[in-house]
Amino acid sequence: MKILITVQDNNVAPRFDQATEVIIAEHDGQKLMAEPRTIILPHKSADELSDLIIKEGVQCVICGGIEETFYRFFNWKKITVIDGVIGSHGEAMQMAFVGSLRPGQILPSAKKST
Fold this sequence. Notes:
Layout: E1 2-8, E2 11-12, E3 21-26, E4 37-40, H1 46-56, E5 60-62, H2 68-76, E6 80-82, H3 89-98, H4 108-112
Parallel strand pairs: 1-5, 5-6
Antiparallel strand pairs: 1-2, 1-3, 3-4
Domain Dinitrogenase iron-molybdenum cofactor biosynthesis: 9-95
Protein name: Dinitrogenase iron-molybdenum cofactor biosynthesis domain-containing protein
InterPro entries: Di-Nase_FeMo-co_biosynth, DiNase_FeMo-co_biosyn_sf
């Protein structure tokens, strides 16, 4: 499974359309297939980020808030969206790979920082 996580600092970015950094990682069900890639976007653009997701063949998007139009577009393209996630991007990635990450989930890393 190839996932993309919107990132701000070391956390899942709170808004899809405001993300300027993403991490793309691929997992074969047992382990990471390669080191996750970090991509710095030149500016905030939900449209350009959506294009990147399609071009990269991403199967799952993990983000904070996302506009309904993008959410529906990804569903139409058969891309899973796990939105409303709050916490560390690393923790979100690990949980996604084992199938335990859910939309709206507040991760333990977010609870520690409050």
